[in-house]
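The instructor's notes for this session suggest beginning with a concrete chain rather than abstract definitions. Hand out the sequence below and ask the class to guess, before any prediction is shown, which regions might be ordered.
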Amino acid sequence: MKVFCLGGAGRICMEAVLDLVQYSSFEVITIGDFNLEAAVQLAASLNDKRVNAVQVNVHNHEATVEQLRGYDIVMDGTTITLNGLSTACIAEAGCHGINLNGFGEEDASHDVFVRNGKMCLPGFGMTPGVTQMMAMHAANQMKEVHEVRVSHGSYRPIAFSKSIAETTVYEYDPELPGRVVYEKGQFLQVEPFARPREIELPEPYGKSVQYIIPHAETRTLAKALESKGVQLVEVRGTWPQQNMRLVRALYEYGFLRNDRIQIAGQEIGIMDAIGQYLFESKEGHETELYGYSLHIEVTGISAQTGEACRHILTHTHPASDGSVQGWEKLRAYTRNVGIPLAIATELIASGQTLCKDRSGIVTPEEAFEPNVIFEQLSKRGILVHEKIESLVEVR
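After discussion, reveal the predicted structure:
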């Protein structure tokens, strides 16, 4: 099997590449990145004869398509704003595709994937991705599903890369139509910082107030659980508290509209300027606590007992304090995102999916059996925990 790792030299995707080298059965692993120097350095550091590096520019559609032809799958680590371009290249090249974001830019290429008999899975990292697996694990044990609340803490610097700074601005864009909740059969658009809810994550993260964010799980879980009568799907998230305070202030003062301003005769978006400052500043690259933490709450009627119940699933990973080699500081975040991407990439390429005869755009819920993902994560030290509570009133 051959895999093309698009944007493979980025801080997150390089962790997925490392995982493929350590665990996968791919015979060719190509790191394709616009930054050829970074791709070559990464390939050299991996010291594996299966790995090679090339330069790629998804803005050059025809050239990129030719570079991708012949690969079984393209593991796409490019940014949200490039996903429409990158997915179009993958589809036309006749490869399976998978990426981290899943914000809907991929949908335009559905028919091309179908025509070529290939599938594309948009959005498989920790969230979206593992979050859907955790929710479905609980839902599969219920005959009715009433409410699903997906929450996560993403503990990383606000701008350790330009794509991360871009994600911050995107998710809190006041005009973003994709910031929705699913409630009683309808998708309702909400404002930034809507529906605050205190969530208790496993230590060392603890309690924090989280807000609705625009993530794919809202739509994919609503679709997957429609037959079980789901009435509510909400997705919340938080970053380190200093990040949240900054974003809240930027929102309240209108900066997140990214209005165009004039500085010394040059026109620039105000958030573009702030994002560039954060990317270049010490503050944008540091935080006190690093890592990732998921909290999934599913309520409904147990298939086993017929009683009302609540499943709470969380996940833990090796500490970021330097006590576990390879998980130091920022890598405790980037590995949490990159490893699930690598796992899903090999499962798709090797035909180990629930929908291997399907083509076109597919969702995580359609693609994988949750326990298969959990088993692979556990081999890397990423563990899923489940607690089941009865909601039957004590009289």
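Then share the key points. Residues 130-337+374-390 form a domain with the Dihydrodipicolinate Reductase; domain 2 fold (CATH 3.30.360.10). The two ends are 60 Å apart (CA to CA).
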